[in-house]
Amino acid sequence: MSAITPFVPLIVSGSHPSTHMPSNASSSSLTGETATLRQVVNAFLAPGGIFDRMGESRDKIRDAARQAFVSIATVVHKHGGQSVSPAAAARLVKTQETPMAILERFVREVAFASKTARVREQVS
Predict the structure, then answer these.
(1) Which of 9, 24, 51, 102 has the fewest beta carbons under 10 Å from its own?
(2) Which residues contact 37 (CB under 8 A, 6 or more apart)?
(3) pLDDT tens digits, residue range 18-76?
């Protein structure tokens, strides 16, 4: 869990402060970053991932999971994540979802639906 926090900004190069893309960057590199960010969000926030660790009884594990979630959410936000209305999200195919829409879906479907009260209170 502790390795996720520094790892996520490095894997998505557009969010790392020392690697700003030039204004004439190709759309394929931006599409690649979006695809990578989608994979990161899907891998770490899926059921059995970070949200489940937020419900652990040990403080150290809960804190690491919370920091990892904040790190992922920060990268998604810096990447220019646009929130999507529920009606528009219903029309999107999962491969076309923005990273922000995926993040919101996991928070809604996994974190807020968790049986563990600790998870629900840490996410809200």
Answers:
(1) 24
(2) 12, 75, 76, 79, 99
(3) 444 444 444 455 567 888 888 889 999 988 899 999 999 999 999 999 999 999 999 98
Place of tokens 């190069």: 13
User: CA–CA separation, 56 vs 58, rounded Å?
Assistant: 6
Each domain of the chain, given as residue ranges in start order, spans 4-14+27-123
Please count the other Cβ atoms lying within 10 Å of the Cβ belonging to residue 42. 17
Radius of gyration (C-alpha) of the chain in whole angstroms:
15
CA distances from 96 to 42, 58, 75, 118 (A): 13, 37, 19, 32
* Helical axes 27-45 vs 4-11, angle rounded to 10°: 160
The pLDDT, as a whole number, for residue 124 is: 81
| Of 86, 79, 97, nearest in space to 42 by CA | 97
| Separation between Cα atoms, residue 37 and residue 33, nearest integer Å | 6
